[in-house]
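Thread title: Can someone regenerate the structure for this chain?

I was given the following input by a collaborator and told the matching structure tokens would be attached. They weren't. Posting the sequence so someone can regenerate them.
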Amino acid sequence: MSLVGESATHQRLMDGVYGRQRHIYDATRKFYLLGRDRLIRELALPNGSAVLELGCGTGRNLALAAARYPGARFHGLDISKAMLETAARRLARDHIDDIVQLAEGDATHFDPQALFGRARFDCVFLSYAISMIPPWKQAVTQGLDVLEPGGTLHIVDFGSQEHLPRAFRWLLHRWLSAFHVTPRESLREFLESECESRGARLSFESLFRGYAVLARITLPSA
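Best answer:
Regenerated them for you:
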């Protein structure tokens, strides 16, 4: 199947899963999508920063980040039309649609110049998106490819839950699979490989006994 075909298939899947879920998504996910607020706090964005969220969903993270860093400019990409509709309404309600730009696209291959009018960003982040993107490694490399020299890529997502009870891990994975979510066991190894090839620095932390992971890649300056 071509990349275009894969994108269309994934888009239909996401719209099907979240067409209704989007209305209760933020209210329910706050109990188990842990570490998102810490990621936003640690972005530490100076004024004038251009920021891109891949897999922006309902716009929850963009709204919080825009409130915390009003001097930055934000961009959100998502493959789901339904989620983007919800995000647009939220941004308009919060009166921040003037500093947040949304676009429909596949995080694994997109043209930022065509979508957002710029080729590179100072910061890119993915919040519980890696586990929902089948070709997730391509999403990571694409995020790194659109960073400015010295820019940072931030990721928070499910970990391997290695220090949690086995029964809890089994139940969690059963629950996640119902929403087509798969924790990426090899995330750290892949990020280490990318950093080695790009001369970048990696910070990788396990949170809540392995329930989640928080990673940051910093590219070398020009």
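The chain has one domain: 3-218.
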